[in-house]
């Protein structure tokens, strides 16, 4: 048997397998577990999940969550030694050739039922289309965030943070001469007062630097705040992340899109549990300064 050395993707795939063995997770929940552990992007995770699905390691269920296939579950339960090189083993054709005893793997008995095969293929096709649709939805939301009125973007960020449970309510600052603070979240888990927010509408190639983080930290301290939120439609440099440390909550473009989807801000429900974009929400004019944003009690 060929001896394989785990690649970076093998390591992440192994972690995903162990996480999904415990319970089914949404892509956003998986990102929350993985981004803090590995130097990879949300796009890397998405591509890896698609690859794992093609290899029948994971599947996307009807609840829009990722879960393990029956065969993968058995691999984990039997402590298969090839798990640490999951992707490489599949690519070299080793794991698909496993022969489990009939009493261990009854659901994989050969059958000639063409109807079952057709249903299985159709199910896989539907799952792939759902993943493709959700990826397109994320791309379109990101496009809208980059083109919406910058002041409207600041309001969207406040609403998303409130709806995501970051605070009881939020208030935007004046459109001009705001002192570098675009809004506040109040009654957060960390404190009862206001937590400053700065929002940057950057193109994807324009990352946030450590200098910008230093500047916002200084602004926060001048206002008597030790913590705050820095939100961008792009991403943060490694030095920016280091500079922020535990003082700032950093939200990049990918995470912002995921928060929008999970909180269903600016989205409309469709049949089958799919979501579509409410374009009017993203393109409406900004509201006057000082408007209070909070979760509706309706």
Automatic annotation (TrEMBL):
Q: Name one Pfam family in it.
A: Mrr_cat
Q: Which GO terms describe its biological process?
A: DNA restriction-modification system
Which SUPFAM superfamilies does this one have? Restriction endonuclease-like
Q: Which GO terms describe its molecular function?
A: DNA binding; restriction endodeoxyribonuclease activity
Q: Which residues form the Restriction endonuclease type IV Mrr domain?
A: 147-260
Q: What is the protein's name according to its record? A: Restriction endonuclease type IV Mrr domain-containing protein
């Amino acid at each position: 048997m060929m001896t394989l050395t785990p690649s970076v993707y093998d390591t992440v795939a192994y972690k995903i397998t162990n996480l999904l063995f415990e319970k089914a997770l949404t892509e956003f929940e998986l990102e929350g577990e993985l981004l803090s552990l590995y130097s990879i992007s949300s796009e890397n995770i998405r591509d890896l999940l698609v690859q794992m699905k093609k290899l029948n390691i994971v599947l996307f269920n009807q609840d829009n969550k990722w879960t393990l296939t029956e065969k993968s579950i058995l691999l984990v339960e039997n402590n298969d030694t090839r798990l640490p090189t999951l992707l490489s083993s599949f690519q070299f054709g080793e794991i698909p050739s496993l022969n489990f005893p009939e009493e261990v793997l009854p659901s994989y008995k050969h059958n000639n039922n063409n109807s079952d095969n057709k249903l299985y293929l159709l199910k896989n096709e539907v799952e792939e289309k759902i993943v493709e649709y959700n990826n397109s939805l994320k791309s379109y939301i990101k496009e809208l965030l980059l083109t919406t009125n910058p002041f409207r973007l600041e309001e969207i960020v406040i609403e998303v943070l409130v709806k995501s449970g970051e605070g009881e309510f939020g208030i935007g600052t004046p459109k001009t001469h705001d002192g570098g603070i675009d809004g506040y979240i109040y009654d957060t888990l960390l404190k009862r007062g206001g937590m400053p927010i700065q929002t940057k509408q950057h193109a994807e190639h324009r990352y946030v630097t450590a200098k910008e983080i230093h500047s916002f930290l200084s602004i926060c301290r001048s206002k008597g705040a030790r913590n705050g939120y820095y939100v961008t439609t792009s991403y943060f440099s490694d030095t920016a992340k280091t500079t922020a440390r535990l003082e700032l909550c950093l939200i990049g473009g990918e995470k912002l899109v995921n928060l929008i989807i999970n909180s269903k801000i600016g989205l409309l429900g469709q049949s089958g549990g799919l979501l579509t974009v409410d374009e009017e929400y993203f393109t409406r004019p900004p509201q006057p300064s000082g408007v209070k944003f909070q979760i509706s009690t309706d």
